[in-house]
Amino acid sequence: MNEQVDGRRARGERRRQAILEATLRVIERDGVAGVSHRSVAREAGVPTTSTTYYFASLDDLLIATLMWSADTLADDVSDLIVRLVNAPDTDVEEVTRRLVDMVGANRGRTMAEYELYLLAARRPELRPAARRWLDLITEAARPFDTDPVAFRAFLAAVDGLLMQGLIADEPPGVADLEPVVSYLIRPRQHLDRLQGGTMGE
159: closest CA among 106, 109, 97, 117? Predict the structure, then answer.
């Protein structure tokens, strides 16, 4: 009996996950305005009754999609934080490549996520979910005694780079972003180098 219950629960979780992934694909293709129970059900290949069963309202669906997206992004960025702390001199290129992928190969998904985040500016009920990724990443960095001001500035700058990359006619490449990322990760070294050059003139 327990195996049957566990099996139903696992199937239900897989269907719920498929609906969330389908929602993000609909936003990627049609924008938030294209999200409806019917359009998401069609994209997920499930009956419309399934989307309304798991998510009674569109707000419930959008909030859940934001939460899932935030958790995924936070896991990815948290892994980068650990790598940077353990090997700060070797991972600038890796961070840069992740950002390049987000505005290049994975541009559609990044655009969909930002559209959801920006919707939260108009919809207060979405704001806690939109802030979740920042809360999770900040918590992940806490054990490393990261300067909270510098870390917040780094995350804000990354947001800006991604937004700029999304509206560029041509997405930036590694060569475009690596000097900027290097500066964001190690600003003191850049400032020291600049001051040394000025003093030497």
Answer: 117
